[in-house]
Design goal:
The chain is α/β, with parallel strands linked by helices. It folds into 2 domains: 271 residues, Rossmann fold; 81 residues, 2-Layer Sandwich (GMP Synthetase, Chain A, domain 3). It has a 7-stranded mixed β-sheet with strand order 6-5-7-8-9-10-11. A hairpin with a 7-residue loop joins strand 3 and strand 4. It is globular, with a radius of gyration of 21 Å. The two termini are 39 Å apart.
């Protein structure tokens, strides 16, 4: 596979995140040498091509503790990029900013959208948007953020000024709280809430910025070429040209439909993701849905992000616990807030206030 990428990378010269830029260039070098690529967190690794098809291999655990390898062919990545072009009815290059981890689909697709459309990509640490005085940094560019990043950027007038100049801000990867959504609307940001995953090479639904501005919630409507339905258990099933291959047993397929672990609902063409079926915690014989608890925690003022998990317990077998950022959150106030909104067994037995959610991942947790 030969990729003439010299001119492409010259357009990334103003990137501030040189580590991600070097990672992306290394991916292209491996592909040019005829291998496929394992998107390892530290650096890309050459691997044999699956069925001689140039591809990228991503590791993802979704919200389960089991790591899965998802193989996305170069053609699948192209189809996913074309999906975005169709959504915006574009016949011009797509210019992007990559601020998510480059070894994840969310970060990598910003490279692909620019590459396949002959556009450009800048690699930028999202925190730089609050520091940079280059007002044209985001001009006419698309950027993808997770809600916790948007939460931080909304604190900075400088970052808000940058984000207003974006062509579109894709927000996904987690529930966007009503507090974050309210502040983003007040800041008049061009927000597009979306839903997608590694297995689909990124977003498959989009909530239009005008719908978002008008107070509509959820993840919007399926993009062109995407079909969605619910199975008999209420799980979201997806059919689209960009669905990847997977290791045996790592994802579910039903006659070319990808069966997700997400329960959802649809009304008038608009979709909402309710929660995952593979995260339930059994505490004292009661089933607790961590997604529901997390959504309520995120409604507590000043909460940036959270993760609800479980710990072994002699009395309950499993007890519900919550990791919450920032560290300044009042655990007592949060408990009282949740007791008024949740059933008794759904309220976490312990709250751990931490600096970042990554701190939780260094512990023995599962979700």
């Amino acid at each position: 596979m030969k990729l003439s990428d010299h001119r492409f990378w010259k357009k990334s010269i103003n990137s501030s995140d040189l580590i991600s830029l070097n990672y992306a260039q290394a991916v292209f070098r491996i592909l040019n040498e005829g291998d496929s690529v394992m998107m390892d967190p530290k650096f890309p690794l050459p691997v044999s091509s699956w069925k001689d098809i140039p591809s990228l291999q991503f590791k993802t655990s979704g919200t389960s503790s089991k790591s899965k390898k998802i193989i996305l062919s170069w053609e699948a990545l192209n189809k996913a990029s074309q999906r975005l072009e169709s959504y915006f009815n574009l016949d011009e290059p797509i210019n992007t900013i990559s601020s998510l981890p480059i070894h994840h689909v969310g970060g990598w697709m910003q490279v692909m959208r620019a590459w396949f459309s002959s556009g450009s990509v800048l690699f930028v640490d999202y925190k730089d948007l609050a520091k940079s005085e280059k007002l044209n940094l985001c001009d006419n560019r698309f950027i993808s953020l997770v809600p916790s990043q948007l939460y931080e950027l909304l604190k900075s007038e400088n970052a808000i000024a940058h984000l207003r100049r974006c062509r579109g801000i894709f927000v996904g990867g987690a529930h966007c709280s009503s507090e974050i959504a309210k502040k983003a609307r007040e800041a008049e940001l061009p927000i597009y809430l979306c839903y997608g995953m590694t297995e689909t090479a990124g977003m498959v639904t989009v909530l239009d910025k005008d719908d978002f501005a008008n107070g509509i919630s959820g993840v919007g409507q399926p993009m062109q070429g995407v079909s969605m339905r619910l199975d008999s258990e209420g799980r979201i099933c997806i059919k689209c040209p960009s669905i990847g291959f997977a290791e045996v047993g790592s994802v579910s397929f039903d006659q070319k439909w990808f069966v997700t672990s997400d329960l959802g609902k649809e009304k008038n063409g608009y979709w909402e993701v309710l929660h995952r079926v593979d995260r339930l915690i059994n505490t004292g014989g009661e089933k607790v849905n961590p997604d529901l608890v997390e959504k309520n925690i995120l409604e507590f003022p000043s909460v940036k992000s959270c993760l609800v998990s479980s710990e072994k317990d002699e009395k309950w077998v499993e007890k519900v616990v919550a990791y919450v950022t920032p560290k300044s959150i009042c655990s007592k106030g949060l408990r009282l807030f949740l007791e008024a909104r949740l059933k008794k067994h759904e309220v976490p037995k312990n709250f751990y206030t931490i600096d970042t959610i990554q701190d939780a991942k260094s512990k023995n947790w599962k979700h």
